[in-house]
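Changelog entry: the Thiol methyltransferase 2 record was regenerated in this release. Current contents:
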Amino acid sequence: MITRVVGTLQVITRLQHRYQARGAKLGTMEESITQEAQRSRMQELVRTLPNDTSWEQLWQEGISPWNLRGVTPAITHLVKENNLREGRYLVPGCGLGYDVVALASAKRHVVGLDISKTSLEKARELASGNPNAQFVEFVNADFFTYVPPAAAAFDAIFDYTFFCALDPSLRPEWAKKTAELLAVDGELITLMFPLGEYEGGPPYAVSLQAYEEVLHPWGLTVSSCNDDIPSVEARKGREKLVRWVRLAAKA
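Regenerated structure tokens:
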């Protein structure tokens, strides 16, 4: 097993050096390294580096197996159906910001938050020229220590591939911080992925129960649960859209 992992990392390193020497862009590198190899490298860095450097290192290396390279289909559907409330939105772990820009409008101002400077540089580049960009702000910060200006609470928070990226031991703290950032009567939109039961990560396996266990103590309760949602082919049957409302300041 160790030999296999070492071999995988050596392949990744050779590919990275080859593309760097040719001046290849991030997207080309990502397409050239297999998803399996990317996941192995991601798990290695997350295990061995502090949280504030591991994700930045992954983006610098062009490794982002969670990245759909486009807007999440469920978000496209919600926007098209006008099934989103107005107000201030937060998207933690926003990566390249596709969903941030898609959610934004004159009635929805969206903050895309990420711990990686590299991902946000790319996000700003991708957003430039999009008419929705004027309603978007990208912030480089750690979710767990982030304090919005004037401590203003958000009307909605969108979680996708963020909860599953956290070590399960951090989930209670994630729920506490989410409740702190979300206004009373605010909405948490969780696109749960990957549903299932298995050991290890990231991504760590998630379930509705795993969310409920940490969110209920902070006054968040399910308002809707939908399995029938648009998904990319590789994630069909492994996602669930669950919406929550914060009914109390604290349980």
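Residues 11 and 38 are 11 Å apart (CA to CA).
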